[in-house]
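User: Structure tokens for this complex, please. No commentary.
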Amino acid sequence: MYTEYAITYCAQNEYESLVKGAFWQFSIVPEENGTQELLEWKITSNLPCTQNESVNGLGFRTVHAQTKEKFTQANFKASFLVLKKSSNPFDFIPNPNPKMDYDAVESLTFKTEHETYLRKTRYTHLPNDFNTIFSFDRKKSIFENLLDLNHWVFVHLFFKVGVTQVDTPLREIIEKRHGVCQDFTHLFLAIARENHIAVRYVSGYLHQGNGYFGDSQMHAWAEAYVPRAGWIGFDPTNDILVADNHIKVCHGLDYSDCSPLKGVIYSEGGNTTSHSIEVKASQQ
Amino acid sequence: MKAKPKNSLFSSYPQKPELFDEVFEEGGNIKPIYEKLLYLYGEHSIKDYVNLNNKAKSSFFNQGITFQVYDEEKTQEKIFPFDLFPRIIDPREWDIIESGAIQRSRALNLFLQDIYHDKKIIKDKIVPLELLASSANYLHQMMDVDPPGGIYNHISGTDVIKHADGNYYVLEDNIRCPSGVSYVICNRTALKRALFGVFNHYNTYTVTDYAENLLQILESVKPHGVDNPNCVVITPGMFNSAYYEHSYLAKAMGVELVEGRDLFVENNFVYMKTINGPEKVDVIYRRIDDAFLDPLEFRPDSTLGVPGLFAAYRKGNVCLANAPGTGVADDKAVYTYMPEIIKYYLDENPILNNVHTYHCSRPDELKYVLEHVDELVVKPVDEAGGYGISIGNKLSKSEIKQVQEQIKKEPRKYVAQPILSLSVHPTYIDEKESFEQRHIDLRTFTLLGKDSEFVLRGGLTRVALQEGNLVVNSSQGGGSRDTWVLKKDD
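Assistant:
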């Protein structure tokens, strides 16, 4: 079964003082993979700017936009049409004995190949006094533990917009128990990595038709490497597995690899940015 | 009239028998290779020598050949202390240094290629995974990226010392942005200006061919599809401690010296702003650190880099020398595995010796280090320029305690080595108005291109100016001297 998604992304940037040139990098284009096909897309702006496709540090598609105009307001609107094939994250044959799972991920070859996604980063370093906040139950499979973790994060944190920033430390998120999808995801990643599971941060869009959390913003979730299944998406903000309603853009170690909009602005003074996102579905 | 007694310069030279002197044998006899030189210099009195030396030094200052020393309180502009008495390296010894330096550069390049792709050396358990996982310089953005020409460490600065046993040992390999080569050339120029005649008596390799060889190497790693590559040198700017060198190299290669703001990226190609409009840039000899290369990919507050540069690099449209992420291999902990790394990739025995190193990350070695701080050199693994080094036999009891505490706090951060007896060289000491023994090392410069390699026949002999001091880095107040590599007699 296929679903067609029409995604609209809008960003409004307002600058206090006149900007004399800018270079933006957008990481907002849906990835093309086994379940996603990008049918058409475009990005427009109120400014005359040159646009070209590029890649980010991990090779995902980005769009570079630059202008030599002087301005105080820069608006961008992007639209994407994505064909999504439905998938079932439970569709794999698990190891008969959970111990085989742990043997697999604890082998030197596995740890070497997945070193990148086992690395603790600034956003995913679990503070020492919290490192037993959630421990894996070795009698259960890795997949079952990750499902438990997904649920645990969902219960531990309350979804609240505007209380955390991109750089709010994990400690504060754990202690105050609130945040947005980035914070849910970073906490999931930190605990999984503490338990030697290779996990990555995913940025993308969520179709909220079913009343899921995610606001009208870019969404974030985690992908974990599950023995015999490969990378499976976990959405701790909604306590669900990633399937048909998630449209992936890119992944990385943490948010800093996936930030939807980065820019170098030749100006003094501050700026305010607001994003809005809309995802519409139509069954094929 | 000139003072005549032969070797008046050295008449009061205090020679300590326990030190390995480059010029004098144990009994005070001159080593054959220096005999002619001492005869020639012997025509001068100390006063003549001091005059010449001062002239040479002021010419350094007048040319702006200075560097800066970073300190907690202030930053100082200094000339590199220099004296006119050169070091001479025997051709047979040089053969070992040169082939050893090339061997290390090639092995390090293969190591980088491997750890940014299949990581076979780790799976084969030659090097532990923790070494990479804990290194801040291991860039995940470089994973599976193929640099043009397959070269990561185009420029390596390998530091070697001569030990009291007469053998050379490698202290470290610098493969981020090794500096110092401009001083090699300046030292030679200054010596030629002051005492041209002495060069008529020795068959010495030139050092001024470095720039042309560097340019050749840079051109050899041009991006695919480029015929005549446009090379530039990028500098953080005039406040950087090595700015003189950046400008010298650009000038000597005949290429532009640029700062980040002089370049821009469009459609994944890099351009330089010129009065005739944009000009495409193909190869960048970068003298700025990884973290500052591109604010979109690395430190977002960097104003030294170029937005979009890393994307252009990933697309294969520009070459960066050295490649981003080489720092993982000049980690002092990686150094300790060099003999194994050489054996693994090249199936050769190391030509140059490594100094035995204790890893504080290993519990049993940590214990040994903590118990023997007074007999060891303790170094942080990730600092360059001689910062944070402690030399055991120079420490007071309370300092030893401090060092032990530091190590215990972050064992992974430290390695330790036995205190080596670096060779000494007669060095003119201003305050004493005479020559005294001072410890020296040698920074060699090795270039690695697509199908070629080059070692500068000479190098930077660095001198620890304080009596008994073993740290020779210029940032720690070290000096330098011209270094001659002699051609073989045919």
